Amino acid sequence: MVTIYILYSEIYYEPYIKNYFNILTLNKEPDGELKKYTKHIRITKQSTNDQTLTAANCAYAISNNFSNINTNINLMTLEQLDDFTQFIINNNYRINDELTQIHKNVGYNNKRLIYAFELI
Residue 72: pLDDT above 50? Predict the structure, then answer.
């Protein structure tokens, strides 16, 4: 059975730095080498008026530990997409263009679809 992962760009507010970042997130916890570079995080709502926490406010974010670029946060940002893509290709994952096209027609709240990929 093939497991499909969806990579998103999602707005993340870092309260300690008081700044917004476009981070890379996944739809689920991955198998394979990528698993040790992911962590389940809370996505802070952009509006401070609504502080309700639900599962929709969480995401699997990707640590930037394997990237040569340092950011103010320990998470991969959209600017590091090339590093992430190189990592997954070098670690037995394959980008699935057909599924990416199918998922482009689906709405995802505050997320922006980047591509679908699978472990081979």
Answer: yes
